[in-house]
Automatic annotation (TrEMBL):
Residue span, Anti-sigma-28 factor FlgM C-terminal domain: 32-83
InterPro entries: Anti-sigma-28_factor_FlgM_sf, FlgM, FlgM_C
GO biological process: bacterial-type flagellum organization; negative regulation of DNA-templated transcription
Organism lineage string: Bacteria, Bacillati, Bacillota, Bacilli, Bacillales
Species annotation: Bacillus subtilis
Family: Belongs to the FlgM family.
Pfam families: FlgM
Keyword terms: Bacterial flagellum biogenesis, Cell projection, Cilium, Flagellum, Repressor, Transcription, Transcription regulation
Source organism superkingdom: Bacteria
Protein name: Negative regulator of flagellin synthesis
């Protein structure tokens, strides 16, 4: 008995259909798409502007702490703590 490639296709005729379905499934999958509204873009720009000014304030506070010139107002902190607990 001689085995060659000419007679092997009839052994599994369903494989061709299975392969075609797999190719069609991968080709037919839709791609994700995102659209950002103009209002969301404006909000992002505003957020970036606030973050930039906040970074400047943080840098100033770090410099004051390193120099030893940063002073904590204990009375102001105590008043804020009392006001916080009075509201609750």
């Amino acid at each position: 008995m001689k085995i060659n490639q000419f007679g092997t296709q009839s052994v599994n005729p369903y494989q061709k259909n299975y392969d075609k379905q797999a190719v069609q499934k991968t080709a037919a999958q839709p791609q994700d798409k995102i659209e950002i509204s103009s209002q969301a873009k404006e909000m992002q720009h505003a957020s970036d502007a606030v973050a930039g000014s906040r970074q400047e304030k943080i840098a100033q506070l770090k410099a004051q702490i390193e120099n030893g010139s940063y002073k904590v107002d204990a009375n102001h902190i105590a008043k804020n703590i009392i006001n916080f607990y009075k509201k609750q």
